[in-house]
Amino acid sequence: MIKLGVPSKGRLMEKTFDWFGQAGITLKRTGSEREYAGAVEGAEGVQLVLLSAGEIPRELAAGRIHLGVTGSDLVREKLADWESQVADLAPMGFGHADLIIAVPACWSDVDSLEDLDAAAHRFRATHGFRLRIATKYHRLVREFLTREGVADWQLVDSQGATEGTIANLTAEAVADITSSGETLRANHLKILSDGLIHQSQATLFASRAADWAGQESRLAGLAQQLGLPAPTL
Ligand SMILES: Nc1ncnc2c1ncn2[C@@H]1O[C@H](COP(=O)(O)OP(=O)(O)OP(=O)(O)O)[C@@H](O)[C@H]1O
Ligand SMILES: O=P(O)(O)OC[C@H]1O[C@H](OP(=O)(O)OP(=O)(O)O)[C@H](O)[C@@H]1O
């Protein structure tokens, strides 16, 4: 069996079901509304595993699922050297969201990363501690700011309602996902002009660690059915 991990609820689940449905593969939840059980029709030897989108990268890396759908941001955040652990089989054209850095809209002298670097330097001199950036994307933000040469910041963990941390005085800046921009606007924040870290979308990944022995032809058939090139893992 090829185990296919799919987000268990919300937008990503429904659009993933639609995406496979267009290729004649019906994925569905079975049982009661709250039961995380699923079934596949239209593809032989594929088992549906319903999981949190955030846990799919780890399950792929461990080889407990062969294929998985999740945001490209989550794979890059959760897996060190992600390309060595999973193969990117197909961008799926939904779940678009940008991981960005934002600061209070009233910071009139901070519009770019260079400005943020200068502001962080001044902040540390004034307050005696580093400017705090709230995020749940620790790996991606750390790599980005280091690569871009921004200094004198620290990350503070925020697992939700991240844009609220500035008003709550637990951070001076945020790095979070935005799609419509409503949440940033509502919290009086602006995106830095060069503060785009990653453009994410839902993506079909294959595990390099999973046991593919005996599944090669099944995988090739599935890829063909989905209109994808034959994967090399
Ligand atoms: N407002 C948004 N619009 C579009 N996509 C979004 C938005 N917020 C998050 N996403 C994307 O959805 C994906 C899943 O995010 P989410 O935070 O819902 O996962 P999760 O925390 O694992 O879910 P769960 O609540 O099941 O644990 C991520 O790849 C993210 O980029
Ligand atoms: O640009 P927008 O369309 O306003 O979307 C952005 C918001 O969506 C996500 O939050 P989510 O709803 O997943 O809740 P969370 O705060 O618990 O992460 C993200 O963390 C932003 O807060």
Descriptive account of the structure:
This protein has 233 residues and is an alpha/beta fold. It folds into 2 domains: 2-96 and 201-225, Periplasmic binding protein-like II (D-Maltodextrin-Binding Protein, domain 2); 97-199, 3-Layer(aba) Sandwich (D-Maltodextrin-Binding Protein, domain 2). It has 8 helices and 12 strands. It has helices spanning 10-21, 56-62, 72-78, 82-85, 113-127, 138-147, 182-186, 216-225, and strands at residues 2-7, 26-30, 37-41, 46-51, 67-71, 86-91, 97-104, 131-135, 153-157, 173-178, 189-200, 202-207. It has a 5-stranded mixed beta sheet. It is elongated. The model has no long low-confidence stretch (mean pLDDT 97). 1-O-pyrophosphono-5-O-phosphono-alpha-D-ribofuranose (PRP) is lined by residues 160-163, 176-183.
Considering the chains and any ligands shown, give keywords for the structure.
2 domains; amino-acid biosynthesis; 32% strand; transferase; alpha/beta; D-Maltodextrin-Binding Protein, domain 2; 233 residues; binds 1-O-pyrophosphono-5-O-phosphono-alpha-D-ribofuranose; EC 2.4.2.17; binds adenosine-5'-triphosphate; ATP phosphoribosyltransferase; 5-stranded mixed sheet
